[in-house]
Amino acid sequence: MERNGSAISTDRTAKLAPGDVFEKYRGTFYTIIVVTILIIAWYFAANRIQNTLLLPYFQETAWRFFTAWFDYRIMSNLALTLRRVFTGFLYAFIIGIPLGLLMGYSQTAMQAFSPIINSVRQVPIMAWVPLSIIWFGLGDGPTVFLIAVSAVFPLVINTIAGVHGIDPNYYNAARSMGATLPDIIRDIVVPGSLPSILTGCRLAMGFGWMSVICAEFIATSAGFGFLMVEAQVRLETAELYALMIMSGLVGFIIDKGFLIVEKKLTSWRYKDGIVGS
Amino acid sequence: MALLEVKGITKTFTRRKKTPHIVLENMSFSVEQGQYVSLLGPSGCGKTTLLTVMGGFLTPDSGQIILAGNKVEKPGPDRGFVFQNYALFPWMTVKENILYSLQVKKLSQREQKERLHELLEISHLFGSENKYPVQLSGGMQQRVAVVRALASRPEILLLDEPLGAIDFQMRELLQEELAALVEGAKTTVVMVTHDVSESVYLSDRVIVMSANKGQIVKDVYINLDRPRDRQSPEFKGYVSEITELVRQAFSEKAVDIELPSGFAETNVNYNSQASFTDAFNRMSNRYSRVNHGRAAK
Ligand SMILES: Nc1ncnc2c1ncn2[C@@H]1O[C@H](COP(=O)(O)OP(=O)(O)OP(=O)(O)O)[C@@H](O)[C@H]1O
Ligand SMILES: [Mg+2]
Question: With 50 as the cut, is the pLDDT of residue A7 above it?
């Protein structure tokens, strides 16, 4: 949400006064403080415990973390995992959005599908692993499938919520101006549910990223999750920590990316057409 | 022949396990070309229901609406509808909103441009055509809603409490704007309102409806020159005459209050200020939901 207009200058061309600069990066500043405290705590805790298997030294983990970005093996596995996530997400999107639009728009479709969807989505994601291996063997197949399964439900549910949230008078207004059903889908249903759909995309992507790592523990012998298992087996806890931090960071960056896309695509929701912080 | 004929409209709402609620019974009247008619009555008397039937959004149980000789069966661009909360599409700019009816009809770019120019002219909205509704003031939104409804050159304009969501200070000003806008477009209007003074200021005719099955209590013709002077004794005379009629319309409600629970629930116990505030809050809630991204000013 945007802040109160008086707190930040909303004019993009206006020069920021020093005070405003602080206002703008206030959140970042607090985050840095908290992270610094955590790092210091880690540093002293590791020195005290003196057991690198449980808690590696901060310096070593940090070193692993930074070198990891230049490590071909890690980067190619990360790329593989990202490709799986995006492929799985794409399948979920292709199935989830039309299904959500249909269920949101048509009462009949809702009645027909919702009991099925609501029971299938109660199955824990890890419970799909054995079946997905039977169906797809090992490798890309089961991981992509698991990502798609975990991403499809937030997409469907948020799309339905988006369609239901559309003011019924928008439909009436469109119909009174001569709009036909395809016009209404294109001009009312899709843009009206877009904010909620994009929120669904963010959630779906997050779920996908979480489940891919899990899936790679079991169903494959490559990928970022597999590297973690390897690090654990080789008792390289520092590398494991570094990989975990990386996976958190990558998920965070993907989420930020989606947030930016979301605000760009729904700028009509913001008074001055400028995206808030 | 009259432009619009309302012939014996009856509409009953039935809810599960409850007594059917007759909202309108055998409602008839007609509207001449160029007339500005207000429907006035207590909350819940069926004004919106009647207007919705005219709009073609709701099918009556019996009776029919004839517009320019054709029976109304579904919504269409021959009737311009302005909704209680305006229902401007928040994801379209002012220009896209206004031209929506022409765009779905796939009129040529040139025609659209010309019509846009005319409509911006009568609504004084030049310079705002590329803004989004969230960036407009309440009064500007109202003008966009009216010219959007006028864009397809409808036979008649149907307004449901067009100023319902506007505070009292702004109201009179916007009534003047609305009067000028409608006069400029030379259109026929049926408007629903709660506000007696508003109906006298704007209308050629005020139809006072009763809470009891939407019966017409009285059809009052307002014979005053325009622009009207709210301070003139004649104006005040009309206002007090109609206020008295509305009061009468409420008292007919006493009959309903004795009825089973299904009725009592739907019929608001009327007290004009409370009911207005209530309706206002209801509308402004909806309104703020529509503009959910709107920042505090
Ligand atoms: N879809 C519906 N289902 C059941 N009852 C309805 C429905 N729509 C309206 N009603 C009932 O019909 C009655 C008339 O409603 P309507 O909205 O036409 O009143 P109104 O005169 O416009 O009131 P207000 O001034 O408060 O807007 C009310 O008692 C309302 O509860
Ligand atoms: Mg109403």
Answer: no
ipTM rounded to 2 decimals: 0.77
B173 with B139: CB under 8 angstroms?
Answer: yes
Q: Which of A71, A46, A88 is nearest to A227 (CA)?
A: A71
**Whole-model pTM?**
0.78
- Of the candidates A179, A187, A269, the beta carbon closest to that of B292 is on A269
Phi (first) and psi of residue B39, to 5 degrees: -105, 120
Domain that holds residue A25: 2-47
User: Of the residues B15, B45, B216, which should be mutated to test ligand 1's pocket, given the most ligand atoms within 8 Å of the CB?
Assistant: B45
The ligand whose atoms approach the alpha carbon of B41 most closely is 1
Measured from the CB, is residue B102 less than 6 Å from ligand 1? no
Specify whether A34 is located in the same domain as A119: no
What's the average model confidence in pLDDT over B255-283? 40
Name the residue with higher pLDDT: A5 or A82: A82
| Distance (Å) of CA B127 to CA B51, B117, B130, B173, B222 | 33, 11, 8, 21, 37
pLDDT for the residue B252 = 63
For A159-207, write each residue's pLDDT tens digit. Answer: 999 999 999 999 999 999 999 999 999 999 999 999 999 999 999 999 8
Percent of chain A residues past pLDDT 90, beyond the cut: 39
Q: What does DSSP assign to residue B294? A: P
Q: Answer yes or no: is pLDDT of A3 > 50.
A: no
- The answer on A218 and A174 residing in a single domain is yes
Closest chain A C-alpha to B18 CA, distance in angstroms: 23
Q: Which residues of B touch A172 (CB under 8 A)?
A: 55, 57, 75, 81, 83, 87
Within a domain: residue A249?
Answer: yes
Find residue B71's DSSP bridge partners: B66
Would you put residue A226 in left (φ > 0), alpha (ψ -120 to 50) or beta? alpha
Q: Which CATH number applies to B4-78+154-295?
A: 3.40.50.300
Together in a domain, A96 and A177: yes
Q: Is residue A20 part of a domain?
A: yes
- What's the confidence (pLDDT) of residue B61? 93
Residue A275 included in any domain: no
The verdict on residue A273 lying in a domain is no
Angle, nearest 10°, between helix axes A190-218 and A129-136?
A: 80
| Domain identity same for A195 and A74 | yes
CATH of the domain at A212: 1.10.3720.10
Q: Which ligand is nearest to the CA of B194?
A: 1
Distance A122 CA to ligand 1 centre (A): 40
Domain ranges across chain B: 4-78+154-295
- What is the pLDDT at residue B260? 39
